[in-house]
Amino acid sequence: MSTAYDIVAIDGIELDTIIGIYPDERVRRQRLRLDVEVYLTAKPARGAELTGFIDYARLSGDLRFILEHANFELLESALEAMAAHCLGAPTSDTPRPPVERVRLSVQKPFALEGKGIRRVVIDRIAGSSSQMLSDVQTIFEGDGCGVYRFAIAPRSSATFVMPDGASTHDLMLGADLIANDEKLARGEMHTLDGACAVTYVNPGDIIQTVLRVCRPAHLPTPCESISAPKRPPSGRRLYYPVVDIA
After folding, report:
1. Contact (CB, 8 A) for 186 and 240
2. In this structure, are residues 211 and 149 in contact, taking their beta carbons and an 8 Å threshold?
3. Of 3, 5, 35, 30, nearest to 17 (Cα)?
4. What is the rounded CA–CA span in Å between residue 140 and residue 130?
5. Per-residue pLDDT tens over the stretch 149-199
6. Helix or strand or coil: residue 2?
7. Cα dihedral sign, 173-176-177-182
């Protein structure tokens, strides 16, 4: 018997980003168009709880965040990273049903200068690698970047030091994190450039998670000794709607 799914689709996510392997592509932004389908185990009637639904705005925001900051070399790499994120296990601060399968399509509308439109499609199913089995999950490493998700335990803190020369962008997936003494909203991104440190404090009763893009790849590892300066969050930008569901 074939598996029955409920499919949630978002078509036509458009953004400008750096992507490609040719020298001129590494210094100019190109337009991408992304379509995504997530497959959920079919249920005749889903309850009203947030855990029964996919939040379109958050999903779109997460994928735009990854694409805009990873500077992938290959469309295939970008799709693999986004698929792995979509298939990641839900956590208490990101309530949603488990995603069983994801299908992503990305186009470079102007790459062939009117002689065709390049499109790459991938179809992936959930596996053991989709689960967040520790405080840090490696979503993707390659193309000179790393995409990670890490968790801050309830009523605790963790400090991370970025290496010199790294460009790091953190997106708050939860709603209660404080970064270097400043409260950040759910869906808010901030930038960490060069050798610096950030301390995340979670004052709440559930774990809070962060989606990180780092160039070059650098696994988020909490440090006890801090050898770099702490700075207020900079380059802040909201990737979710201003009015977000709790």
Report:
1. yes
2. yes
3. 30
4. 11
5. 999 999 999 999 988 889 999 999 999 899 999 999 999 999 998 788 999
6. coil
7. positive
